[in-house]
Amino acid sequence: MDDFSRFKVILSQDEIERTVARLAEEINRDYQGRRLFLLGVLKGSFVFMADLVRHLHVPVEIDFVRLASYGPGTKSSGKVRLVHGPGASVRGKDVLVVEDIVDSGLTITFLLEYLRRRKPASLRLCSLFMKGSPQSFPFPIDYLGAQVPEVFVVGYGLDFNERYRNLPDLRELTTDQDAEEVVP
Ligand code: XMP
Ligand code: MG
Known about the structure:
alpha/beta, single chain, 184 residues, three-stranded antiparallel sheet, binds xanthosine-5'-monophosphate, 35% strand, 11 strands, binds magnesium ion, six-stranded mixed sheet
């Protein structure tokens, strides 16, 4: 058994479900009559993407990119690179980036600039979670689920060293039992 019961719940399964449904409602309203190109950021966004798309009524194309920013552990390396680009061209499409969490904004700034150069018809960002305050980013988060405290969170797709992505709720990571590592 993976014992994560000691991790404090930040957002319950129920709260996340309601948040995802609310975001989908906003997206359905704004993209009425259009076709959406959803671009998920792997790996963290896979759970969110799966739940979000089942609430969407507009026609969607789904793709993923893989970026590397965080090394092992919980601190950003400051460097971002594209490990796996979108399979299809984004040119002329209404692109909506689907991200799990925005922290410093480094990862998403890199991706949005990369995509903008490839001339989509429109480019927006949907992030389920964010840390810090929206004022500290150089771009708007067009669809934001919830602000979370500035602690390391796991669950609902988010990991610590590839663990805990399967948790149905969002929890604060406090200690890693196996490594006996205390997370700052
Ligand atoms: P930046 O700082 O570039 O970070 O905005 C965004 C990326 O870092 C990961 N991240 C986290 N992953 N728990 C995680 O499991 C966290 O608390 C956390 N904070 C940031 C995430 O992958 C995101 O794409
Ligand atoms: Mg991660």
